[in-house]
Amino acid sequence: QDIQVKGKVISKDDNLPLPGVSVVVKGTTRGTVTGPNGDFSIAAPAGATLEFTQIGMNPVSVAVVNTNPLTISMVSNTATLSEVVVVGYGVQKKKVVTGAISSVKASQLESQPITRVEQALQGRVSGVTIAANNGQPGEAASVRIRGLSSFTANDPLWVVDGIVVDNGGISYLNASDIESIDVLKDAASQAIYGTRASNGVILVTTKKGKAGSLQLNYNGFYGTSAPARKLNLLNATQYAVLRNEAAAADGNALPYANPMSYGEGTDWQEAIFNNSAKRQNHEISLAGGGEKSTFYSSFGYLDQEGIVATDISRYKRINFRLNSTHKVFKNFTIGQNLGYAYNKTMGLGNTNSEFGGPLASAIHLDPITPLVETDPTKAAAYDARARRNAEGFPYGISSVVGQEMTNPLAYISTRLGNHSWGHNFVGNVYAELEIIPNLKVRSTFGGKMAFWGAESFTPEYYLNSSNINTMNQLYRESNRRVDWNISNTISYNRSFDKHNVTLLLGQEFYQDGSSHGQYVRYDGIPATTYEQASFNYSVPNTQRASGASDGQYHRVASLFARLNYNFQEKYLLEGVIRRDGSTRFGANNQYGIFPSFGAGWVPTMEDFWPKNDVVDFLKIRGSYGIVGNDNIGDFTYISTIGSGRNAAIGTDSYEIGYSPNAPANPDLRWEETRSANIGFEATILHNIRFNFDWFNKKTNGILQYPRIPAYVGAISNPAANVADMENQGFEFELGWNKTINDVKLDINGNFSTLKNKVTFLQEGISFINGDVGFQNLQYGVTRTMVGESFNSYYGFKELGIFQTQEEIDQYTGAKGRIQPNAKPGDFKWKDVDGDGDIDENDREVLGTSLPKYTYGINVNVAWKNFDLAAFGQGAGGNMIFSGLRRFGITAANYQTEALGRWTGPGTSNTYPRLSESDPNYNFRNPSDFYLQDGDYFRIKTLQIGYTFPKALISKAKLSRLRIYVMSENLVTFTKYTGYDPEIGGNVFSIDRGVYPQARSFFVGVNVGL
Amino acid sequence: CKKFLEIQPKGVDLESNYYQNEDQMYKGLVAIYDVVAWQGGILTNKEGVAMAASDDHYGGGEGSGDMNFVNMDKFTLTPATGPQEDLWSRGFSGVFRANILIEKAPAAQMDENVKARMVAEAKALRAYFYFDLVRWFKNIPLYTTNITTSEMYNVTQAPPADVYAQIEADLKDAIAEPNLPNTVPAATEGGRFTKGTVHALLGKVYLWEEKWAEAAAEFAEVNGSTPGQQNPTYGYKLLDDYGDLFSGDVANKFNSESILEIFHTTLSAGSWGGGGVAATEGNIMNIMAGPRGYTTKTAGAPDYYSGWSYWPVTKSLFDAIHFDPRYKWTIANLDSLKANGIADYTPGAQNTGYFIAKWVARYSNLPTGAGDRDLNWGQNYYDIRLADTYLMEAEAIVRGGGDMTRAAALINAVRARVGLGPVAATMDNIKRERRLELAGEGQRWFDLVRWGDAAQVLASEGFVAGKNEILPIPLREMDNTKIEQSKEWGGTK
Fold it and tell me: Under 8 Å CB-to-CB from B373, ≥6 apart: which residues?
């Protein structure tokens, strides 16, 4: 006799109804799901058991008795052990995973001001070093998983719902659409992605709908941003004094007769910084479904103004997403994921460059030149093309600081309206057939289609005597590409007695590099502003330029297999093998084989493990594997011919010339990374989760285009396997959650160390000079050598300042005085090679640019209806190269630290005397003078929210209403004196005047229907 | 699976199947000529560097940031800083491209006569690049087959005599090739080497080797039997109007006085965003030479285009040429224009008020094509021109003891063209004439070194005898290689 059981499922955490919970009569196929208010109704025989399950909740079983209605209270399962993690081509129970995988869940990203998905990982997972390249809205961050595996390409492989997305293209994702991010850190978990997995793999899974209720959610925030810090630069009077001093040191005429007459002068930073840059973000999602179909759809809108030169620094993005699954037959499922994003980016040009742009100009321009020249006599002398303000006064042009440094307001006025744009479609369709129980065949076709381009109008201008544009230009560029992959897998899992076995076999084809684009430029159109500019104007053919390009296909063909075995979830084994063929290598090295092996033991499952309340769960695991990287240009293993070697033969024409590009390297092969990982996971005292990993990662045959001697005569450098490198480190993750009376606490922290060392360089090569130059320094800033970390700072070491001539006379070596031409106030350079003079052989390693440790801490506290979330993140152990003054520009302004320069015995032992010609190379030598401690800790976000009581909002048919205030980058603790210690890029920590991160304040609201 | 991985590069030819027909061979030849007009790095070109080094010019530019030219001017070079790496790269790029064409030629399916001409040009060009290299650096690697990846770090330097021997051999081969023409049509082939070019080049090589008789013979071939008269074989003749040599307009390109001309065009649409200096076929010297911030104040002011103030002319050259008929074509006296309220400008580094008028960009030659103005000036300049070979032959005769009447006739033909009276054929007169006639053309520095006068003339500029005659081997060329620094620069070679 069936009983009609009715009831309601609520969450024990907040007593809110739980929709979408699956309710099944145990041992039958009879089931239902809870409705929007958590209600359910099901017919069940008396004495039967009802099972309530939902992902993220501990399952509940209830015996049916004749009492109605039931109230089922489910507890969320924050203990991550029963969670699943996404692995390549499937999911696994976290409990049985043997590799090192760190995850971020949707709940950690909720209402966070995350513009790009990289930011979601920063400080939230161990073993990942992330540094924003700069603070311009929409700008990418550099992501390094367990350090550097390569010299040229260290970006991880991003796989979104099974689709490989290039590193730059990942910006299309809206963080609130993300269900989980799983970072595969060791070779055992990466090997299934064999090719290009050596920099780590980041698997992003987007949200799916759940059967049951329809859920409509809105999240939005609005706020303003401001720079956290300004540089202290000299005012006009101080500047004139120091300039006079530098000129006098060389016996030159004093440039400023009366320094006191200039007063404070111009604050160029003030002119470019915006203390109220606006930012808004809105997201609406609608999700739901029934027994057959589910869907998740969302819309997002982001508009962020930059804090520097806001008129030309802004990022807008619009996102759409539709994910759906359909159970066509009981054993046949089809589904699709599709994300679309449009972005419009206005960038100010140089975001970390000493060669001009608003930031570098603001730092370098003399404070004497006025922002706007309002003196009519002086204004009359300005060039007709000088940029002017609304009143017609020209923006001031410095007569002493020139080259690329221009009045930032004038510069901004030449770039108004210029922007780049992109449309990105990333999606896949898949079908899965369960032929017999537990034997599944799955086919997926996925791809990315991108359209991107740029529009710009450059008016005629006279910014200074080196920056003149005599004819306006209208430019338009558009590109497109389609990357795709097809994968087919068969999986079978079976439990025999206590043995659990899962086997996966698969095949994949992948192609990218199909991009092609074209641009056109018209010169001298009859327009003076971006708004007026149009290609509808006609100009003679000689004033038109155009170009186009075709990409080279890059293809990878793969076969792979994975076997997972465990005995009672106690002894765990995993083996993976993948074979990849890449078009980037010649026939002799086309295929690479990448195996891996992992094992684990869960002693807490053993019978002999004593029952106790201290250690609830312990897993010890280890893995070893090999992954590869083919990330080097196409067709570099053969010698190709390039064009553009033109010569102006004939009276006024030119001929197109062709010659070989680079010498061939037919033996070019895969870069291979072998990594070993040992770790353990534990749950202690029920609510402390601990995770530890040690790893050693060794990359062989690092791919690079090493600079070859110019006497070879080739126009470009051949690709080669040039070096081996090792990365070693520890990673800790610790979590603790506890409810004490009304207060719920959840604290998570992580800490990772990293030691990067080059272990071998190609035969005959004892070092590789870094390609990082600074200004026109006669030596590069970094060098790569065996035994040191990649791109270590390399330069001269200063031993203080000569205070007197006597000290100079006493600093002697084999050739007498070591610095015979030095004067008091000059740096005493260390004679590293001890040969008695100072030359290029006296340089040495001065420090590392890559952080040696990174950490993050996340604190969540809830009390009644209030919640507080604080998230901090830091990095350290690296040095920052603070290149904020161009010595090549004699008249450049100084930071106020120059006020503490050496002016006589005893005045300074750290900042040398000023001199225009700098004969002792005090400033022109790359030296530890430029290096500063790069450690920082930053309160990344701080959020306080209030959730309205249900009783209050249910009248408005709302299921959830929460308001919050939030701050981003509230405080940064650092000794670094530049704008911002967080500097990513190809080489970390090189500050050329980086666009700083903004400090922002927001108010926001979450609404659920 | 295998088929999926079989793809061909798109729009890219492979070296292994290139150089197979006349068109491809010609494109390979163009690539060698590309290097002749090469300018790159930090605005480096051969003439500009030589000008800065001489006593006629300073480095100039905007400030101490433009260190390459200032370093050259003040002889404050180090193996790490200076223009030497650019000049080194230029030379070997040329050698590399010439070698590959010569190596591939036998297999090309094409008219054998056309092929023979191309090979002769490639050899002459190779000699041209080696000649520059050996003069700048003295101790250089010498190879006529390109270096493979595996041998790359084992290359050593050759004795300078071996380099000269190779240069002579290549030039003689070119002269012996009947398919190398005596003249070329300027409109379509202007700038390609002719037999005349090669004779002049060989003469210059002999002059450097102090093989006076051989030098005089080669120059006589170029200069013709009667100085001042047109050479019937090669068509060489001094232009009537000295100013036409430097007008910068299309009509005067590849004129009858031009023997080896460095070519540029206004039409290659060079742009800063599209590769900058290295990728344009325009002439960067024009914009570099101009006065900074030039503005006209009266209608009659010269139509100079504002430039970057490189190579300010020294007082010494100004004084030497001030009352010479060639003065007005040679020097732009901005000091005077400014003082008289005719025009204004912003003084740059090492300003003297005098600019090198031969190369200052002019509105009358304003590039009309697409691209950035700065990068698309079209003026050609001369590596060798007839007045130069006249004076070199005169020098070879005077120093080698030859027909002094002919020597005097040669000098006086050059003087007569600008309305100056005859002088005697003495080394002093030749030296003065070369300085004034060829001012700003990048010859003076090489002349001073060749005559052994550099130490004395340039002492005040910091020139050190026994060191600054050559450039240091670029520091990076010694990184990981067997290349040694020259003894002059404290090295072992």
Answer: A468, A469, A470, A471, B287, B305, B366, B367
